[in-house]
């Protein structure tokens, strides 16, 4: 995966390269990365090149010693002892890794499989149908494009995306893509139920009432973000998703069997391997902010791959798309003379606007809100 020197990349770069022109030409096709693959490209366009310093933390650790926690939620409500054990494991995972996987979470396997199949159907449908949904207007009920930060990020990522705002104001059913309409609605209901349980556990892990985070509004909004990572002819030159942390409270991710998700842990990239039937859960920036760094919003990325297409469905618990003036800051019950607030108060709208303006440029956005 390592590009050995900048020269190896630069030999293919011409001084008269017009990046803006290439970006616009790509965007105007409204076919995304999949369109390039369908056209049979053997070399990726320069706009997708990531410089070598993006790849200098590939892990050479023994992955058996450093693995993302897997938490079994079975029998949680049947036995107080099991529930306490689950809360303890959630606390340890969120304070140490910021990531964990959950199994026996209550969402049927056939629902998970149909959700993935629905995403495949969306991207593999007729181009004319998809083009009607292609937009960079984030306020549309369904937003389909390639790279939300195409014109602001240092390099484009090898993926296409469509998203839907599923709560608190879900779109009219007829506004959702026909090929995955029913499963989007069904899956979102399941994820909301799981999310409420997770926020209850996270509240308890902070020593608060189980409803605390829910009452703060953490479960109010869900954004379903559906990624499609086509097979890449030159994966060593690009990424599926650049290094970033999530601009939400919590993310629940369904990934397929291909893999490629990595977490930055102690300056090393650690794989998050696909586990059959599991969902990946990770802390977002806003939960780190309101927990005053008790919980960790960890940087992660997705590798490009010769194998594909890979699909993933990330459900973001956030209301960043809504015009609200509600302020969020470190939870006062967690503060003390020895633990003063580390962040200023901000609105989700302000934070989301900053995130989208910066794009996935590899920088830590929480620092902008530090005191």
UniProtKB/TrEMBL annotation:
Which Gene Ontology molecular function entries are recorded, alphabetically?
A: dioxygenase activity; metal ion binding
> What InterPro entries would the database entry show?
DIOX_N (IPR026992), IPNS-like_FE2OG_OXY (IPR044861), IPNS-like_sf (IPR027443), Oxoglu/Fe-dep_dioxygenase_dom (IPR005123)
Family listed:
Belongs to the iron/ascorbate-dependent oxidoreductase family.
Q: Which Gene3D superfamilies match?
A: B-lactam Antibiotic, Isopenicillin N Synthase, Chain (2.60.120.330)
Specify the protein name.
1-aminocyclopropane-1-carboxylate oxidase-like 1-like
The cross-references to Pfam families, in alphabetical order and at most eight, read: 2OG-FeII_Oxy, DIOX_N
Q: Tell me the ranges covered by the Fe2OG dioxygenase domain, including all copies.
A: 218-320
Iron keyword on record = yes
Q: What is its cofactor?
A: Fe cation
Alphabetic keyword roster? Iron, Metal-binding, Oxidoreductase
